[in-house]
Design goal:
alpha/beta, 4-stranded mixed β-sheet, transferase, binds N,N,N-trimethyl-histidine, Rossmann fold, single chain, 322 residues, L-histidine N(alpha)-methyltransferase activity
Length: 322
């Protein structure tokens, strides 16, 4: 494992590469301050995200649910009977009843939830096992952005990768490409994938989804500073920062930023970080695709778009890839 040695005049500390601490230290030291969005999801952050899915402005979760409900028979036909479903990022958040109902309609032989958070994953697995006593469930604790193998000797026929929630939008084009190829390796040449992605639309609708009137998304974003204060002995004063949601046309992404309201210095452990007035920490990108763009991404990484299911307002898409 790569380590970064931080040398001061008195002591040498070792910081584990890829840890929260190392990401905060390097993310706040650069010319452009940025933090990986996975750190938004501590306990409170995960609860706040659940709350976001219920605010009126945040359309993705609810729209994807409607599409799943509307087209579940077609989606089940696409997956085929006795499939092995591999769900990436499955433990993050409570499974909605719709997703569970979808599992039922899919008539699966085996369900493989993959997530880095082992605790959540256990919860998800046992909850689903309770509803489907005869389903073979094989949870895999892994970061789905790294290479990992599926359990051997799986029962069932075709393997189907499932990646709902437009989580793919958080990945850069390179990461999304790597991920699609990994999925292909996991399911093999006869396999399939079902992926939810958010569609590009008018900027106002997209921005308000990430800047709701009730201020839940703002709390969700600023909670990252609270987490730094708690876990890394930071002294961020939340009242001196604000949440901001922005549209980046070149990246076709909504970005969340934490904006410094004034010039200030914040301390994390024994390090000082200077902020200019208006300087931001970029905390998340949520990419929005059009159908053609998503199809090109799929084609370039080992897939053909076989189906596209959408809501009547064209807000969200679920792609069936082969
Ligand atoms: C869970 C990654 C799909 O990008 O829409 C919601 C996270 N961030 N509001 C998204 C999120 C701010 C969400 N994903």
């Amino acid at each position: 494992m790569t380590k970064i040695n931080v040398i001061t005049n008195k002591n040498t500390f070792t910081i584990k590469h890829g840890s929260f601490q190392s990401d905060v230290m390097s993310g706040l030291s650069g010319l452009k301050k940025t933090l990986p969005c996975r750190w938004l999801y501590d306990n409170l952050g995960s609860e706040l995200f659940e709350e976001i899915t219920r605010v009126p402005e945040y359309y993705p979760t609810r729209t994807e649910t409607i599409i799943l409900q509307t087209y579940i028979r077609e989606i089940a036909d696409f997956a085929g009977r006795n499939a092995i479903l591999v769900e990436y990022g499955a433990g993050a958040g409570i499974k909605t009843e719709t997703l569970i109902a979808a599992l039922q309609s899919l008539a699966l032989d085996c369900y493989i939830p993959v997530d880095i958070a082992g605790e959540f994953l256990e919860e998800t697995a046992s909850r689903i096992q309770g509803k489907f006593p005869h389903l073979s469930i094989k949870p895999v604790v892994s970061d789905f952005m790294t290479d990992f193998a599926l359990p051997p000797n799986l029962l069932g026929t075709r393997r189907v990768a499932f990646f709902p929630g437009s989580t793919i939008g958080n990945l850069s084009p390179k990461q999304a490409g790597d991920f699609l190829r990994r999925m292909r390796n996991h399911v093999g040449p006869e396999g399939a994938a079902i992926i939810g992605f958010d569609l590009k639309k008018d900027v106002e609708t997209m921005i308000s989804a990430y800047d709701d009137k009730a201020g839940i998304t703002s709390k969700f974003n600023l909670n990252l500073l609270t987490r730094i204060n708690r876990e890394l002995e930071g002294n961020f004063e939340l009242s001196r920062f604000k949440h901001s949601a922005r549209w980046n046309e070149e990246e076709s992404a909504i970005e969340m930023h934490i904006v410094s309201l004034e010039e200030q210095i914040a301390t994390v452990g024994m390090f000082n970080f200077h902020f200019r007035a208006g300087e931001t920490i970029h905390t998340e990108s949520s990419r929005k695709y059009d159908v053609k763009g998503f199809e090109m991404l799929a084609n370039a990484n080992g897939w053909k778009m076989d189906h596209i299911w959408r809501d009547s307002d064209n807000k969200f898409g679920i792609a069936g890839l082969r």
